[in-house]
Amino acid sequence: MGHRGRPGAGRGRRxxxxxxxxxxxxxxxxxxxxxxxxxxxxxRGVTEQLGPGDVARAAALLRQGALVGFPTETVxxxxxxxxxxxxxxxxxxxxxxxxxxxxxxxxxxxxxxxAGVRADDRARLVAKHFWPGPLTxxxxxxxxxxxDLLAGAGLDTLAVRVPANPLALELxxxxxxxxxxxxxxxxxxxxPTTAAHVLEGLSGRIAAVxxxxxxxxxxESTVLDLTxxxxxxxxxxxxxxxxxxxxxxxxxxxxxxAAAAAxxxxxxxxxxxxxYAPGLPVxxxxxxxxxxxxxxxxxxxxxxxxxxxxxxxxxxxxEAASRLFAGLRWLDAEGGARGCARIAVxxxxxxxLGAAIADRLERAAxxxx
Length: 369
Prior knowledge:
369 residues; alpha/beta; DHBP synthase; Rossmann fold; 2 domains; 11-stranded mixed β-sheet; 29% helix; 15% strand; disordered N terminus
């Protein structure tokens, strides 16, 4: 399955072009043009309440880029098309999530889950025993992976799982794309285990909630990192660590967040000071730009840069969030090829999603150890 067309990707609008006047390949492939992003249901401010017979409606909304709460065996997830950067950015906006922590991508089968990651024998063994079920695997991301970079917080890894809830599996089959889904609650609130809980926090902020009754497990999935030589338990959850150790042997344990940030030794959700750090140095707060700099712009771009990637010419923070990681990677690759000295970053307002964008940019600009 290829990427579907997205709002603003052409339709008579002038597409963004690089310094040479051409449409950047990464931008064209992602279908992200410089338009002001608007979620189609926001003008109504109404969240549809769907039942088990409305799976097709929920799947259609997800394919259109809308956000849908849906049940899993653990908690209700806030689903968005993981291949659509604007939908993923919408998840962070709806939750009020303060950082771009990696999101878990949900699939209807192990075969589908492993299509975009490198699954070794350990991954296939635990998947055989615990999928469908409350286990998330963090695995190396393949170059051909269709999941948007924002869903993985710019990391070269991806968190994947196959839920056990039959309604969720049917929804995922009908969507036909990876679905990114953190818990369907406002950031910092208690995770929801009923559709009513979802509506308490997100009514009017998402397109729909698919009511599948109470979640039987009630705690989030176990998260297992299989990117290194030894398996590491990042988060305890619905699958006991002892059950995994019976298959793989002793599990390593994640460092406390403060220690991991200090040492930058652990690639895990929200624990690294610097997630994806570009090869070029990053200069924040640029109000002017030199000819040997690549520019990451927001709003009207500063003149004089060697090359420019505009997060949002219209100054839309949701669009900017959806284009952040792709922009950093494109400027790093193209800027390096053209001999640029650094990436200069224009200021982004630190309100709403702007705070998360600023946090990510500070991590990208952190001193290299």
